[in-house]
Amino acid sequence: MKKVGIYLLILITICFVMPTLLTKRGKEVTAHTENETEKETTPEETSKEEKSQIFDMSATYDYKKYGTIKLLHKSTGEVEEIPIDEYLCHVVSAEMPVDFELEALKAQAIVARTYTIYKIGNKKHEEADICDDSKCCQAWISKEDRLARWEERKQESNWAKIQEAVNKTSGLIITYQNMPINAFFHSNSGGTTEIPVNVWGGTGYPYLQSVETSGEEAYTQYLSEVTITNEELLNKLKETHPEVTIDFADQDSIKILEYTESSRVKTVKFGNIEIAGTEARTIFGLRSTNFEITREDGTIKFTVKGYGHGVGMSQTGADSLAKQGKTATEIIHHFYTGVEIKEVNEL
Q: How would DSSP label each residue in 74-143?
């Protein structure tokens, strides 16, 4: 009987006491790292984390140089050191609509990376490689601000799409004669891009030629209008040309005199002065220099095609080409003449 009692006691210990001890020990191990406890997620959350890891491919390209850049935040004067592909996610999300085709976003990523590296070799800022001001260098937006402007349900997938565009092109840049090009880009060309000499003067760049792109008229950036009164027009001109006089009764007192090869306004007459189309665009706040002028009942209407200076890659043109089945590489070769796409480590 004693033996039976001993066996029974052992059996009770095994069945009830040991599981309790083991369970307690398991809890202690889990609670040891608070962050690990917080990472316990639902199946849906886990899949999102895995998705994020899939898109985070920047580590696959080993930048020998240019892997980190110095970014100047113009509003604060702060200079931030940041991995180039992380920086480019902020640039691409600021420069191109996320609902554009992936191949267009990939082309934008390559163009923006090229532009960044070109700027490193041709610095405007002594303390930094590039700044976050689109009027000086190229646009940049923080992830927090970018996400806040998207619908909440699309925030994660949108950012993942931007990361994919950047990371799938990691290390790639556009070159001409084995040097990074000055990769200009703009919103909408109005159907035909412009050569730089007609915008900024100088001798231009051989890889920036005028090219036609179909499908850009489908975008809201393609067509715009500015209507002002005769008096408003005269006052705006006098701010930079105080000597101007206009006889509004004379239909020839306001007239386009000359066009560029891409049908943009090269020279326009306002009364007793003649100014460049680029200056008229600035004075009257036009989206591009591709405009026509009509007059009626004491008003002047500018009908404008395109958006931006028109040089280099048109972003809506890139999206239009992507919708036609073109790849990022084909898009780049469409807008930049005689170039090669290379890994930056090859330079």
A: TTTTEEEEEEHHHHHHHHHHHHS-TTS-HHHHHHHHHHHHHHHHHHHHS-S-SS-SEES-TTTS-----H
pTM listed for this prediction = 0.81
162 neighbors 93 (Cβ within 8 angstroms) = yes
d(CA 40, CA 251): 75
Helix axes 328-335, 102-121, angle to 10 degrees: 50
Residues sharing a CB contact under 8 Å with residue 136, sequence separation 6 or more, in sequence order: 74, 124
**Cβ neighbours, 10 Å, residue 111:** 31
What does the angle CA 20 – CA 24 – CA 28 come to, to the nearest 5 degrees?
Answer: 170
Bridge partners (DSSP) of residue 259 are 265
Kindly give the confidence (pLDDT) of every residue in the chain, 347 residues in length, as a single tens digit, with 9 standing for 90 and above.
444 444 444 444 444 444 444 333 333 222 333 333 223 333 333 333 333 333 344 457 899 999 999 999 999 999 999 999 999 999 999 999 999 999 999 999 999 999 999 999 999 999 999 999 999 999 999 999 999 999 999 999 999 999 999 999 999 999 999 999 999 999 999 999 999 999 999 888 999 999 999 999 999 999 999 999 999 999 999 999 999 999 999 999 999 999 999 999 999 999 999 999 999 999 999 999 999 999 999 999 999 999 999 999 999 999 999 999 999 999 999 999 999 999 999 98
Question: How far is it between the farthest Cα atoms of the chain?
Answer: 128
Q: Could you write out the DSSP letters of every residue in 280-296?
A: HHHHHT-S-S-EEEEEE
Element (H, E) at 173: strand 172-176
- Strand pairing category for 223-229 and 185-186: unpaired
Question: What are the tokens at 275?
Answer: 């100014």
The number of angstroms, rounded, from the C-alpha of 280 to the middle of its chain's C-alpha atoms is: 27
Q: Quick one: residue 285, left, alpha or beta (phi over 0 = left, psi -120 to 50 = alpha)?
A: left
Report residue 158: phi and psi, to 5°: -65, -45
